[in-house]
Amino acid sequence: MTGKPPKRVSVWVRHAGVGVDFAAAVAVFTLIGYWIDRHWQLGHKATITGAVLGLVGGMYNLVRASLAAFKEIDRQEDDRDGKPKS
To answer: Domain-by-domain residue ranges, the chain?
Structure first.
């Protein structure tokens, strides 16, 4: 099969990595905070701050990507059904 996959499948495949991006953001910011804590002996302040920043940034990207995916799917369904775009 050398043809392109259907567009509906490609939308979901394209956005499937959003969960991995979320986990990576949390992990990276938490590790940076952990390193700062160990380097400057701040207790757990930077680790907690890093984890919160990772959660906020990851959640922002997750919501943004999810909304974009649903808009694209709605657009494709409207095109398939022949409804006018709003």
So the answer is: 18-75
